[in-house]
Each structure stands twice: as structure tokens, then as C-alpha cells.
Amino acid sequence: MTTTTAITNIGSLVTNDPALGDGTPLGLIQNAAVVIEYDKIAWVGPADEVPAADDTYDAQGRALIPGFVDSHSHLVFAGDRTAEFNARMSGRGYSAGGIRTTVAATRAATDAQLEANLVRHLDEARRQGTTTFETKSGYGLTVADEARALRIAAAHTEEVTYLGAHIVSPDYAEDPAAYVDLVTGEMLTACAPYARWVDVFCEKGAFDGEQARAILTAGAAAGLIPRVHANQLSHGPGVQLAVELEAASADHCTHLTGADVDALAQASATTVATLLPGAEFSTRAQWPDARRLIDAGATVALSTDCNPGSSYTSSMPFCIALAVRDMGMTPDEALWSATAGGARALRRSDIGAVTPGARADLALLDAPSHVHLAYRPGVPLVSAVWQKGRKVA
């Protein structure tokens, strides 16, 4: 039985451990090797010092990176919003109201249909190097539909988020306060056993600051850790609320004041600014200013926001290319944010790095350097993927 595998002849290895490599945040090692034992990284170092292993995989001089950590997605849904996207690209603006279309389709779908769609998107993401993903409910907006979304998601990832507060349910359009009571009461009770996180869309057209506070504090009282959809479509209280409540992440962070940036910088050890460039690409919206956040000292993650309405991409390499081209990030920063940054946003220390003891989640690029992820946008560069030590793509 094979228990150890040595990946040898790695041209450039990204470890995300400065102590292992060249002292930069990426911890680069040239001419490297990695040994996997069961589902963990057992050894990392120069190729000419690699210990014996049961099996060997020749990387042929290509670059090896940590598997991508996609810390924000919405993958339990049915239907598609092609018509909405087509209309938007023809000049109509985007608003949160489009979510209702997906809510109707999701409610009408069977459990088997929802799970098949989830698995299809997970396989798609895995082929592009994603080895850890978070996903949310939020397209059911009834007690039963939110709970089943989380139950389906929990069968495929440990990073499951309760987002009953995506928008006010159409069933409660005339009484938003009653819907907040449902989200913080019966729905929370039904959903909490399947989730690790609680989230809220704090935005005009969704939930205001006080509603969001009530939802997040109720979730926290039920043992869930807060995250916040914050400051996406306009400036609002989301970022400040995320920092105040020590949320793991404030996601989107598109419309920020200087005070918001300062707050995220001061909370860099607690609250990650998760940027989702697929949403800006797909809605022709203002780009988040990653350079401003990084220079201020905030911790930044990159994620896909994969959802059928405003960011229908599962490709972390595509999001890296957008971040480099349009958000002021260097290729090194973008890769770190898509791996170690995502791990920080999920408060995980076992993923997002290639270091002894970490989970053996790896992506081999058909390129000599990780820089090709931004240098060659749209090209399928991921040639092999290991997840928990097993070659899966």
C-alpha cells in the first residue's frame, strides 16, 4: 500500500511559508520537491535532498502551488439567469432583486437536482485547482428550503454558511421585520446544526445595519461565526459591523471610506477583506481597490463568489487575473490571497500552504511560474490537483 508520494522536479514551489523558502510571503523554493504522507505534507525542500517515498510523481520542471481556497460561493441553487445577464450587458443595471428568480427555481427543484448541480460546480472548480470551498444557503428563504440547502452542502464541505438573510423573502415583502424574526428564530434553529458560519447581505434592498446586527448576533449565540456581505453596491455599515462583531470576513468591500479601510487594517488579525472580482466583472461595477487595502495593512482574500446571478464563474485563476489587471494587486499578492488569504478568511491553519503538517492540497501548473496565472488569463493551466493527499484531477 502506498503511504508516501514524492512530487519531484518542481521548477518553482509556492509554500506560503517564508521560513521554508526565499523569505517572501510566498516562500518560494526553486528546484524543489514535496513528500505527501496519507493526507498531509510530510516534507518540503530542495529536490536533491528529497527522502525516499513509496511512489514518485515527476513535475517536469513545472510550478506547484497550494490548492486554491474559495472562501465565498453560492452553489446550492437551481436554474440560470442568462436572460438577466444578457439584458445587463445590453445596458440594464444590476440590483439585488434578481435573487428572487433563483429563489423560485431553487424552491421548485428536488434535493437530487440541487445536489447534482452542486457537485457539477465543485468538479468544475476542482479541475481549476480549488481544493477548499465555502458555500452558502440563501436561495430558499423558507425554513425547510434553507435547512435542506445546508444539509446538501454539508455533505460536500465543512465550510457551510447559513444565509437565510440573503434578501427578504418574497413571502414577507410587506413585513421585513417578521422575516428577520424568522431568520433569527425558527429558521436559525433548523439551520444551525448544518452550518459553521452565519452571513447577511447588508445592503440597500436587502438588510440594514440594525437588522444585520440582530441576525449576526443571533447566529453567534447559536454557535455560528459571523461573516458579512459588506459594502458591495454602495457604501453602508457592513464593514464596520463586521469589524465590531469580529466577523471572519467582510466580503466584497467595493465601496469603502478611509475609516472602513482603517478599521479593516486594525482588525487584520481577525477580519479578512474578501474581494470578489467576478462580481464586478459580471456587473460592470466599480472594482474594489485591493492596493489601498493591502497598503493600509488589511488582510485580503480573493474568492469567486460563484453564483448564477452576479458572478457565474468557478475559476480562481480567472479571479487572480482580474485582481492583477484591475484591482492593483501583484501576481504574488493575488496568489497569496487566493490561497493563504482564503484560509485566513475561513480561520483555517491547515490549508492554503505547502508546509509540513498542512493538508496535502496542491495544484500543478502547466507553466514554470505561478505568475502565468495572471500572465496567461483564460488558459487552462492547472494540469494536476491533489486534495487531501489524493490526486483528483
Count of separate DSSP helical elements:
14
Query: Radius of gyration from the CA trace?
Result: 21 Å
Main β-sheet: number of strands, strand sense, barrel status?
Answer: 9 strands, parallel
| Overall pLDDT level | 96
Total DSSP E strands: 17
Strand content: 15-25%
The helix content, as a percent range, equals: 25-40%
- Quaternary organization: single chain
Q: Per the principal axes of the C-alpha atoms, what is the gross shape?
A: globular
Distance between the termini: 21 Å
**Which parts are unreliable, with pLDDT below 50 for 5 consecutive residues or more?**
none
Kindly name the structural category: alpha/beta
Topology:
Blueprint: E1 4-13, E2 29-37, E3 40-46, E4 55-58, E5 63-66, E6 68-70, H1 82-89, H2 99-108, H3 111-127, E7 130-136, H4 143-154, E8 159-165, H5 176-184, H6 186-191, E9 197-202, H7 209-221, E10 225-226, E11 228-230, H8 238-244, E12 249-252, H9 258-266, E13 272-275, H10 277-283, H11 290-296, E14 300-302, H12 316-326, H13 331-345, E15 362-365, H14 372-375, E16 382-387, E17 390-391
Parallel strand pairs: 1-4, 1-5, 6-7, 7-8, 8-9, 9-10, 9-11, 11-12, 12-13, 13-14
Antiparallel strand pairs: 1-2, 2-3, 5-15, 15-16, 16-17
Helix pairs in contact: 3-4, 5-7, 9-11, 12-13
Architecture overview:
- The protein is an alpha/beta fold.
- The strands form two sheets. Strands 6, 7, 8, 9, 10, 11, 12, 13 and 14 form a nine-stranded parallel β-sheet that branches. Strands 1, 2, 3, 4, 5, 15, 16 and 17 form an eight-stranded mixed β-sheet that branches.
- Strand 9, helix 7 and strand 10 form a beta-alpha-beta unit.
- The longest helix is centred in the first third of the chain and has 17 residues.
- The protein is globular.
- The two termini are 21 Å apart.
